[in-house]
Structures are given as C-alpha cells and as structure tokens.
Specification:
By secondary structure, this protein is α+β, with helices and mostly antiparallel strands. It has a single domain, classed as PH-domain like (Roll), CATH 2.30.29. Helix content is 41%, strand content 29%. The strands form two sheets. A four-stranded antiparallel β-sheet has the order 1-2-3-4. It has a four-stranded mixed β-sheet with strand order 7-6-5-8, covered by helices on one side. Helix 1 packs antiparallel against helix 2. The longest helix is centred in the first third of the chain and has 28 residues.
Length: 159
C-alpha cells in the first residue's frame, strides 16, 4: 500500500439490494396481515407487532448503517452517512481496539460466512463487513497500516 494513500469504500450493491428487498417484503407482509385481519375481523396484534418491530429495525439499519461511505486516510477515518446526511470523523487516537471476526452461516466451521472488521472507539464502535464493501480488504489493511505507522495503540490490534 502506498504511503498517504486515501482509500474510499465501494458499496456492494448486491448487499444493499438484498437488505432493501427484505425491508420491502416485510412492509408488504405487514400490509397484507393488516388488510387480511380487517377483512376477517380478527386481531393481528402479535404477527403485526413482530413484523412492525422487524420492519422498524431493518429501516433503522438501512438508515444509519448500510448506506454509508468510509474514507480511510493517514490522518483519520471519515464515515459519511448518506440518508441522514451526517459525517463522523474518527481519529486513530480514538481507537481502543481492532478485531477481525469471522461469522459462519449455518452450523459448524466448514460453512460459508463473512468477515467483519470491528473497531472499538473511546465513545462507541465502527463495524463493517466484506458483504457491505467490495474493497473490504483494502479498508481493513489501510486502517491497520495507519495504526501501526502511528505506533499508537498497536498493542490493541487483533489482526
């Protein structure tokens, strides 16, 4: 990696599409249950309540977590949230730990999964996965290299 190179995340459109389709399907299922219960004069409280909570959770995940751009530079990490139009600047000195986690889909270790970069900050955390960004490896390596280059908190790296 070049010194002083800026890495800008590339959003994985397939991941975004899957999450949006799940949200749309949940909303349509919610509407169907409400219309069906009105026509049958039954109480849809539990199914509608569960679907409403899941739909709200999915919406919030889209709003605050998925549609974002991460820019990694030698000076800091910038996270741009597109929908809420906010920007978060993270200094490398705010990072307390970096971990790479591997998740599996299904049972056992032989199933496919994906990697998650988990960065603990003084006042929160930043997580991103290889499902979210096409250039996950470049982002992860740049953050690691800039942290090691600063020689600050390098004891906390778990790569």
């Amino acid at each position: 990696m070049e010194i002083n190179k800026v890495i800008i995340s590339k959003l994985n459109i397939i991941y975004l599409g899957i999450v949006c389709l799940v949200f749309i399907a949940l909303v349509f299922l919610l509407i169907f249950l409400i219309i069906n219960s009105i026509s049958n004069q039954t109480s849809p409280f539990w199914p509608v309540g569960y679907l409403l909570l899941i739909s709200i959770f999915t919406y919030l995940k889209i709003k605050w977590g998925i549609v974002r751009r991460i820019t990694v530079s030698p000076a800091n990490i910038i996270v741009d949230f597109f929908i809420i139009k906010e920007q978060q600047k993270i200094s490398y000195r705010e990072i307390t730990a970096i971990r790479n986690l591997r998740t599996t889909v299904g049972r056992g270790n032989s199933t496919q999964g994906y990697r998650i970069q988990e960065i603990d900050l003084i006042d929160g955390s930043l997580n991103f996965s290889e499902w979210q960004f096409e250039n996950y490896g470049d982002l992860k390596n740049a953050i690691y290299n800039y942290m090691v280059g600063m020689n600050s908190h390098s004891d906390y790296l778990e790569i």
